Amino acid sequence: MTGAIPSMATLGILAALPDEIRDLLYEMGPAASTRRIGMRDYHHGVLYGRPCVLALTRIGKVAAAATTATLLREFDVDRVVFTGVAGGLDARLRVGDVVVGSALVQHDLDASPLFPRHEVPLLQTSRFPADEALAGLLHRCAGEFLAQHGGGAALHRGLIATGDRFVHEAGFARELREALPEALCVEMEGAAVAQVCHEFGVPCAVLRTISDCADQDAPVDFATFLREVASVYSAGILRRFLAALPA
Ligand code: ADE
C-alpha cells in the first residue's frame, strides 16, 4: 500500500523481547487492559493519544507469525509496526544505527528446485514490501530522534533479511551477504510479520536498531545493547511516530 496514512483505528506494536518495548509498556500505564491468548499478552491501551495493542512475539518466525495472526484476528488493528534490534550485514552499518525496512525477505527459505530460492511457495514473491507511508513516517521520526540523541548514528532504509538463526559466524554472515547483497541487516521476525500482514491485507512496517555486526562479538554486543539501549530507541522513535499519525 502507498500514499497518505488514513486516519486510524488501532495500531499494533510488536517486538520480540521485553527489553525492546519496556518503556512503551510502562507508558501505557495501568489503564491498559491485557488479554492472554496462546501464551502471549496483548496489552490494549492508549499511547500518546492513539489506541494501540502492544504484544511480544518472542523470538523466531513461527512465534512472530502466530502472534501477528492473533493480533489481526482478535483485535481491531488496522496497521502494524514491528520494533527491535538487528545484526548489521552491510559493512556501512554500525552499532546504534537505525534501519527502516523497505522490504523483508526470509533468508532461510529455500524450496528450490521447486521454487526459486527465497520465494514463498505459491505467493510468487520473495519480498514483502513495507507500507510506504508507514515506513516513510518511521524514517522521518527515526531521523528526528537520531539528530537529537543518536550521537552520530546513521539512518538507513532498505532490505531486511529474516531467518531462524542468530548470526554470529563470519562464514555464515558472508554467505548471507553473497546470497542477498542488498540486505542491510539480519533479524529473526520481520519477514514473518510482513508475510502475515500481507496475507491479511494490513499495512505494516519494521524498525530495527543495530545491536551488533553479526560477527563473533554479536552475542555480547546484542545482550549489552538490548539491556541498555534498545527500549530507549524504540520508545523515542515510536513516541514521535505516534504523535505524527493522523488522529
Ligand atoms: N538480532 C540482533 N542481532 C542479530 C543477529 N546477529 N542475528 C540474528 N538476529 C539478530
Q: What is the strand and helix layout of this fold?
A:
Layout: E1 10-15, H1 18-28, E2 33-37, E3 40-47, E4 50-56, H2 61-74, E5 77-88, E6 98-106, E7 127-129, H3 132-149, E8 155-162, H4 170-179, E9 183-187, H5 190-200, E10 204-212, H6 218-244
Parallel strand pairs: 1-4, 1-5, 5-10, 6-8, 8-9
Antiparallel strand pairs: 2-3, 3-4, 5-9, 6-7, 6-10
The structure holds adenine.
Bound molecules: adenine
Helical content stands at: 25-40%
| Alpha-beta classification | alpha/beta
Q: Outline the biggest β-sheet.
A: 5 strands, mixed, barrel
Assembly status: single chain
Order of helices and strands: EHEEEHEEEHEHEHEH
CATH class: Alpha Beta
Task: Tell me how many strands there are.
Answer: 10
According to CATH, the fold-level topology is: Rossmann fold
Low-confidence stretches: none
The total tally of domains equals 1
Say which CATH homologous superfamily is assigned.
Answer: Nucleoside phosphorylase domain
Quote the average pLDDT: 94
Choose one word for the global shape: globular
Estimate what percentage of residues fall within beta strands. 25-35%
Strand order across the biggest sheet? 5-9-8-6-10
Identify the CATH architecture. Answer: 3-Layer(aba) Sandwich
Q: Measure the end-to-end span.
A: 19 Å
EC number: 3.2.2.9
Pathway: Amino-acid biosynthesis; L-methionine biosynthesis via salvage pathway; S-methyl-5-thio-alpha-D-ribose 1-phosphate from S-methyl-5'-thioadenosine (hydrolase route): step 1/2
Keywords: Amino-acid biosynthesis, Hydrolase, Methionine biosynthesis
GO molecular function: adenosylhomocysteine nucleosidase activity; methylthioadenosine nucleosidase activity
